[in-house]
Amino acid sequence: MINAEDTAELMAREDIGFLAEMMNYPGVLAGDKEVMKKIKAAQRNGKPVDGHAPGLTGRQRDQYAGAGITTDHECSTLEEGRSCINAGMKVIIREGSAAKDYKLLSPLIAESPNMVMFCTDDCHPDDFVRGHINLIVKRALADGYNLWDVLQAACVNAQKHYKQNWGLLQTGDPATFITVDCITPHFRVESTVIRGKEVFNYNASLPSDHSDTPERLLDLEFPNRFVATPITAADINIDLKPGDTVHVIHAYDGSLQTDHDEIKLTGNPLFDSHYPWTEVQKIVVYNRYIPGAKPVVGLVRGFGLSNGAIAGSVAHDCHNIVAIGSDDEYLVKAINRIVEMQGGQVVVSPDEMLDIPLPIAGLMAPMGGHEIAFRTLCIQERVKEIGCQMKSPFITMAFMCLPVIPDIKMTDRHLMDTKSFSVIY
Asked: How confident is the model over 79-93, as a mean pLDDT?
């Protein structure tokens, strides 16, 4: 864990430009000493502090901003966005694979063009290869927003906020820019230049610095900490009986927030409850860093997995193993495959298993962008075949582990009520 002293040391470095995502917004509101020391360390060095405070409005938003937080990318309603801007914070409009906030927040482009930026924040590779900020720009232009307001949000505000000396085409700046074929909602990026070097050209195949094949690269040694060992069905058993009160994470497609369903059982919700068949599955979070750790098991609804399981080692923000499945056999297979690969993403169906190895810290693959995008597309198509119709199931699952987004999430230690920041079990 990076403490306040570590943060102060890092903030003093010239190659670090800001303090990212102050996620512990309850700590900020409570004036937690350790949290406030981290913020002060950034301020002493003239570094902006990014925010992460879903749902805060009114007095709480003012208090959060008053502590020195300067941005937020978690606003998902226009009320939140306006409250953020009124408190002096910039709103980063997010349009990722799972969380899509542009539709509701886009009026801010016209209302406060100097207080808005764009981002994706968690974008599947198969979405990423189609485009990034350029797609948000196209959409904003198609919606009729002023060209200069859109370009300010896309190209200027972030550079100025984070004090970057590139991308603004000022005298003495590194030559970092894109060229487009026209300035309409149908523009195409023709080339990309970074620090004077053309790295993309729509009409040419540029030479690559990497000659190794993906298979060869996967055999190399990469930095990674992965000490988890295989599990059995007994490790993820939960005893449910009529009369028990259970807590179910209710997930939704297109949202990172969850509802907290607290239910008194009349039967086993995995098999014979009042829920429609297959609506409730097990969710497992398994610490991959500590030898001898035990899986933590809970219940989730919204994924719709009817005949299989998915698992991954991308699980915000600790990136332990997380898995959701229709029965224990599939869950065990999926989790153990992640253990075997030392990180990755897996889908298990009755007739096959598809996976993507992520050997770099359990988070990244040593492959080209289009290669990993194609593999991601294949694995997501298989997830649909076993019942999950979410647009981005792996990213949505990854956020089931992040206890700073309401209302209920699961860590490798506890099921958490993330509104009160208290342990459920």
From this structure: 97
